[in-house]
Amino acid sequence: MYEAFFGLRERPFDLTANPRFIFLTARHREALSTLRAGLSAPSGVTLLLGEAGTGKSTLVRGALAEPPHPENRTLLLSNPTLTRAEFYEYIARSVGLTTRAAKSKARFLVEFQGTLQARQAAGGLTTMVIDEAQSLPDELLEEVRLLANIETSNVRLLNVVLVGQPELADRLNQRSLRHLKQRITLRWQLTPLDLRETAVYLAARVRVAGGNAAEIFTREAVVNIYQASGGLPRIINVVSDNALLGGYAAQVKPVNQAIVRGICRDLDLGSPQPGESSAASEPLEDETDSPSHSHSTEVWVPTTRSEALFPWQRWKEVVVRSLARLRPASM
Hints:
Oligomer: single chain
Distance between the termini: 21 Å
Largest sheet: 5 strands, parallel
CATH superfamily of the largest domain: P-loop containing nucleotide triphosphate hydrolases
Number of domains: 2
Radius of gyration: 23 Å
Order of helices and strands: HEHEHHHEHEHHEHHHHH
Number of helices: 13
CATH architecture of the largest domain: 3-Layer(aba) Sandwich
Number of strands: 5
Structural class: alpha/beta
Shape: elongated
CATH topology of the largest domain: Rossmann fold
Helix content: 40-55%
C-alpha cells in the first residue's frame, strides 16, 4: 500500500517472523549461538527467555532456517496448549510413528526411543523446540523432562529447547519442577533494544526492504518510536508500520514526530514526549551490530509499554484521523 510512496520493494515492518529481516545485537548473536548449540549437539535442555516481543520466535526460526545435518530432525511445537494425549500424538505424527504409538504411551515410548536411537546411530540428532513454553501446564513440563531423559549408556538421544517468557523461569523454581530445572545446560535471556540498537534496527529492516531509513523517518520520529516501544522489536514494528501508513495517508515524507505521536495515541501506547532525547542529540554513526547488516544509515528510533497489537481492521479509522491532523490547510 505505502511501499511505492516510500520507495520500498516490500513492507519492512511486517509482523511475520521472516529470517530475511533478522537483526542481531550482540546479545541476540549470543542467544542465537546458544540456540545453535542446542540444535546441533547433544545438550539436554536449553532455555531461551525474553519478554513478549523481544524476538525469541524470530531467533528460533532463524536458527531453524540454517542448513541442518542431513540426519538431524527438529520438531517445532509453537502452540503448546495441548492435553497430554494430544502432546504425545503430535510428537508421534511428527516423527512418523505408527497409529498405535499415537494412542498408547507405552507403545509411544518404545517406538520413539527406537527412532531416536536409529537417528543417533546414523550420526543425527533429534531436537524438540517448544515455543511459548510458559503456556505448558506443569504435567506437560514433567512429560518433557521424562522425554529429555531418554538416552543410551553414553549420550542423550533427545535435545529439548524451551522458549518462553520470564515467568517460565519462576515456574521452574517450583519444587515440583526442580528435576527439569536441573537438566538445563544452556540458558539465555533476551532484553529490549536500547535507543541506538533501535535506530540501527529500523535502518537495517528498511534497507532489506529496499529503502533508506534516513529518507523515511526524521530523527525525532525515531526517538519517539523508541520511547513508545520500550525497545521491543514487535512494538517497534507495529508503531513503524502504522507510522508509514499514516505518512502515506497524509502524503508526508519523511514520517515526522507528529505522525508517530498520533499513531501512538491511536495504539494506546501513550504520547511520547516532543523533542529529542539527549541520547539522540548527535547523528547516528554508520554502524550496525549484525555482520549481515554491514551498511548503516543515519536514523533515529523506539522502547515499551504494553504488548499491543494493532487491529488491522482499524487502519482506515487511523488513516482518516491522521489525514485530518496532518493535511496542510491548502489541500
